[in-house]
Amino acid sequence: MGIRFGIDVGQARIGVARTDPAGIMAVPVATVAAGDDAVAHIAQLVTEYDAAIVYVGLPLSLSGSHTTSTHHAITFAEQLNELTECDVYLVDERLSTVTATSAMRDSGRTSRTSRDVIDQAAAIVILEHALAVEKQMHSPAGIRVGEHASE
């Protein structure tokens, strides 16, 4: 199956998670500061772990329409696709940060103590969703970058 990466692209921070080589369990990798070097840094991680697929969360509004964050994630995914040899897919990530925040709160962590890992947790949520779709559909989840008409 191969290692899969999940990426939660934010304006300030980017959460990164990966699977084990069997593609079964998702684990946190890093939180990367958003900025000029972020895509290159994450591409280096993807290469280092020899990832087969990268899933980048596509933040849509609850109605499914594009937002400023949607365009930011698409641009990030396109740049990552150019720097890596693996396939990059955009997957719907509505409520991933809400789900991750709720899980952190349920485990007894506050927003203040979770700030450094919440983006990684959101990346895990994105990755676990993509893995569930893969298992059900027997094919990668989402829209492959390069096949997506960015607006």
Describe the model.
This protein is an alpha/beta fold and 151 residues long. The protein has one domain: YqgF/RNase H-like domain (Nucleotidyltransferase, domain 5, 2-Layer Sandwich), CATH 3.30.420.140. It has five helices and six strands, in the order βββαβαβαααβ. The chain has a six-stranded mixed β-sheet, sandwiched between helices. A hairpin with a 6-residue loop joins β2 and β3 (26-33). α3 (96-106) packs across α5 (118-137). The chain starts with a strand and ends in a 7-residue tail after the last strand.
Summarize the structure.
With 151 residues, the chain is an alpha/beta fold. The protein is 41% helix and 23% strand. The longest helix is centred in the last third of the chain and has 20 residues, at 118-137.
The number of distinct structural domains comes to: 1
- The CATH fourth-level homologous superfamily: YqgF/RNase H-like domain
> Which structural class do you get from the secondary structure elements?
alpha/beta
State the strand order across the main sheet.
Answer: 3-2-1-4-5-6
Overall mean pLDDT stands at: 85
What's the CATH architecture? 2-Layer Sandwich
- Identify the overall geometry: globular
* CATH fold-level name: Nucleotidyltransferase, domain 5
Radius of gyration: 14 Å
CA(first)-CA(last) distance: 32 Å
Question: Would you spell out the secondary-structure blueprint of this structure?
Answer:
Blueprint (H helix, E strand, L loop, with lengths): L3 E6 L3 E7 L6 E8 L4 H11 L4 E6 L9 H16 L3 E6 L3 H11 L4 H4 L3 H20 L5 E2 L7
Parallel strand pairs: 1-4, 4-5
Antiparallel strand pairs: 1-2, 2-3, 5-6
Helix pairs in contact: 1-2, 3-5
